[in-house]
Design brief:
D-amino Acid Aminotransferase, Chain A, domain 2, globular, alpha+beta, D-amino Acid Aminotransferase, Chain A, domain 1, about 30% strand, single chain, 2 domains, about 300 residues, about 25% helix
C-alpha cells in the first residue's frame, strides 16, 4: 500500500525507484531502534499542493536526531525542497510524507558515523478512520522520560506504541490511552489527547508526552475561537466525568472519541468543542488559510 513499481523515493541524495532502494541489514537502527522519523501531510489546496507546517516537522526531525547524537546532513530548507520535488515526481496532491533518519552497520551500542536519509510519500487516509472511537485504558504506560527522550520521535520508542495498540485491537477497541509513570493521563500510542469539561479543554502538559505539531495548532485555533485550554495533569476519574474528548496528530488530524472503557461521553461529537476545532482545522489545511500557520 505504500509504493508501486513506479513510486519514486529519496534516498541518500538520489531520487530512485522504491523497488531499487537498498539498506544494510546490519543497520544499528534495524537492530536497536536508534533512528528518528517524522510524519507530514500534504494537501491539495486552492494555492496548489501544500505540506502543512513542513519546516516545523523537519526542524523537529533534525532536533530529535541531535538528541541521540545523529547529525542530519541536510538543512530543514533543503529537506523541504526535496519533499516538494518528491511530491511532484510522484504526482501526489494529497499525501502522507515519511522522512526517516537511520544509521549504518554497527552491532555495538555506540555512535556510528554513517547517517542515511530516506523520504517517501503515499496516499494515506486519516489514521483514525472515524470520529466515533471506542478507547480503552491501556495496561502499558508511556516510557519514563528519565529512560529515553520521550519528546523526540525516536524509532525505538514506538515499541511501546505498538504494544498498546495491539492490546486495544485484540480487546475490540479502536485505540488505547496510556497513563504516565505517575498515573496521570498522557496520550494515545501515536496521538495527543484533549478532553472537554464544562466548556474548558484540558490537555496533558509536556514531560511525558510527545509535544505534537498538530497539538500546537489546535491550541492556537482554540485561542482564536475563544476556547479556554488548560495544560495540567488529570486523572482517569476526571476523564470519566468529561463531556467529550479527542485525539490530534499529523496522521490522525483531529479524531473524536465516543467512549472510554465502554462508557460514552456526555456530548455527541458534533456538539463538542473538539468538533468545532476539527472543522476549523480542515478549513486551514484545505482552503489556503495559512497566514498564521507557516504551511509553506
Amino acid at each position: 500500500m505504500y509504493y508501486t513499481k513506479k513510486t519514486i523515493v529519496f534516498h541518500n541524495g538520489n531520487f530512485v525507484k522504491a523497488t531499487e532502494a537498498k539498506t544494510d541489514l546490519f543497520s544499528q537502527t534495524l537492530h536497536y531502534g536508534s533512528g528518528v522519523f517524522d510524519g507530514i501531510r500534504a494537501y491539495e489546496t486552492v494555492a496548489g499542493t501544500q505540506a502543512f507546517k513542513i519546516r516545523e516537522h523537519y526542524e523537529r526531525l533534525i532536533k530529535s536526531s541531535a538528541r541521540i547524537h545523529i547529525k542530519v546532513p541536510y538543512t530543514a530548507e533543503e529537506l523541504v525542497n526535496i519533499t516538494y520535488r518528491l511530491l511532484e515526481d510522484n504526482k501526489l496532491d494529497n499525501a502522507y510524507i515519511r522522512p526517516l533518519v537511520y544509521l549504518g552497520p554497527n552491532m555495538r551500542l555506540t555512535k556510528t558515523n554513517e547517517v542515511n536519509i530516506f523520504i517517501s510519500a503515499w496516499k494515506w487516509p486519516r489514521y483514525q478512520l472515524n470520529d466515533q472511537l471506542d478507547v480503552m485504558l491501556s495496561s502499558f504506560q508511556r516510557p519514563n522520560p528519565k529512560a529515553s527522550y520521550v519528546d523526540a520521535k525516536i524509532t525505538g520508542n514506538y515499541i511501546n506504541s505498538i504494544l498498546a495498540t495491539q492490546e486495544a485491537k485484540l480487546k475490540g477497541f479502536d485505540e488505547a490511552l496510556l497513563l504516565d509513570s505517575g498515573g496521570f493521563i498522557a496520550q494515545s500510542p501515536g496521538d495527543n489527547f484533549f478532553m472537554e469539561k464544562d466548556g474548558v479543554l484540558f490537555t496533558p502538559p509536556e514531560g511525558h508526552i510527545l509535544p505534537g505539531i498538530t497539538r500546537k495548532t489546535i491550541k492556537q485555533l482554540a485561542k482564536e475561537l475563544d476556547f479556554e485550554v488548560v495544560e495540567r495533569l488529570f486523572t482517569v476519574q476526571e476523564l470519566e466525568a468529561a463531556d467529550g474528548a479527542f485525539f490530534t496528530g499529523t496522521a490522525t488530524e483531529v479524531a473524536g472519541i465516543k467512549s472510554f472503557n465502554h462508557q460514552a461521553f456526555k456530548k455527541k461529537w458534533e456538539d463538542t468543542m473538539g468538533y468545532q476545532l476539527f472543522t476549523k482545522y480542515k478549513q486551514i489545511v484545505t482552503h489556503g488559510e495559512y497566514d498564521s500557520y507557516s504551511i509553506i
